[in-house]
Design brief:
This protein is an alpha/beta fold. It has one domain: UDP-N-acetylmuramoyl-L-alanine:D-glutamate ligase (3-Layer(aba) Sandwich). The chain has 13 helices and 14 strands. A hairpin with a 5-residue loop joins strand 12 and strand 13. The chain is globular and about 55 Å long. This is Adenosine kinase.
Amino acid sequence: MTIHTELDVLGVGNAIVDILCHVRENVIEHLGLEKNAMTLIDLKEADRLYPHMTSSIECSGGSCANTMAAIAALSGNAAYVGRVRNDQFGKVFSHDLISLGVEYSTPFAQEGAETGRCLIFVTPDSRRTMQTYLGSCIELSPEDLDPDQIMRAKITYIEGYTWDSTTAQKTSILAATIAKQAGKKVALTLSDHFLVKRHQDSYKSFIKNYCDIVFANENEARSLAGTDNTNSALETLQGMAEIVIVTFNEKGSIILTPTARIPISAEPVLNVIDSTGAGDFYAAGFLFGLAHKYSLQNCGDLASQCAASVIQHLGARPEENLLSLIA
């Protein structure tokens, strides 16, 4: 059945199943893991660790999927493109994302690597030790795109992590090309400052040719600008795209346009439980506001409120009613 609903945002990213479990401190040492780090692992290691994750929570994850879930929670029309295999974890990813109200119709891959997963061990001090098997997500291909779906979206939002795979990067660029040819907006989140260093020239070219909106944290902004000085980085980034947003954690954020700088205050938070997802939810609030024609100031304020909401509990899913933030 053909879907004709207009979309606020379509996200393209690395589809990962998050497997979250609370463990005692000695489990980390027993399993030989580096505490409070994200380590890339192969399938054999993922299979070794998974049986130790008793009473776990399994849900759709990945930076871009988190953003789409938050947009849906804000009552926005969100869709997602990401590759999973036709296996146990692929079905978990699909079912969970659709249950959150996100349009997800990327066909299950019938061959190739298994569905990607991130095994997250949470110790009593709330620290996360993450073991990530990328799996099928980096095999995202142009065949996974639906041009009609892209053309229904006001904004196509690209996850920078796709740049670490030649095939996924090519797919992201194709999605942006289709969006621009349809007269729609394209947004990019830089994702990681090491990633930016690896792909600096490619990023700059993509932003120049396709991007209307760019999201970066302070370190990513510096990496893209090729400087250790934040003020110099902001000068370089200003005008690089129609809108550039740079976040500074508890210090707030700044929205850059070619002719203005709009400072946004961070929303006060009494108790930070888990900072995972803060950037993803910030992007969700901003993109939702932009799709609904909010002023840039109001987009930034909603973004800060969304980021503050997710860091007050464990996990990158809304626990409070995000709709209340719109009011």
